[in-house]
Design brief:
184 residues, mainly alpha, two-stranded antiparallel sheet, elongated
Length: 184
Amino acid sequence: MTVGAATVDGGVVSIFVALALAAAGAAWKLASLRTTLLDEWSDRIDVARAKLSDKAIDELLTLQKQIGDLLLDSGRLTADPAQLSQSVERFRALIQARDRLTSRFRKLLRIGPTLLMLLAPVELGTLVAGLYYSGFNRARLVGQCAVGATSLAIAGILFTFCRYVILLHRLGESEILASDTLND
């Protein structure tokens, strides 16, 4: 195909149109990610938070009994509080996991909108780079800016995706800690 004095490569145009359509499909999926995450995780977060609170209370009661036994058996002068460290550490871990659940869930819900914002420059950069590499627009600065902006946005998408995986992993760890079958 010829536009003015330049020849436009139809194969390159097809590749970039396919990439732009794939990015549009990803945007469509990302638009519903927040709702999907809310549906999947909201109740699970509430249950895990309640279980972690219950386990923390149970651990405090165990600690209270251990303190009483230690003071009664050993007397105040010879009591070694180091024996309590395991229960104290377990209590701390339960409370810490419970307190972090809500903030991690909020961060997880922000992933979809963040990815959607990063996808817009990828879409635009793909279209502009397609125009440049197909021969339709030969302004070198335009092509380089498009590739640079697209590359930065893709790096942001990869970073955000890694954050998504880490948040899912940490929420899963908190769920496991709250589970009755694995820790009792």
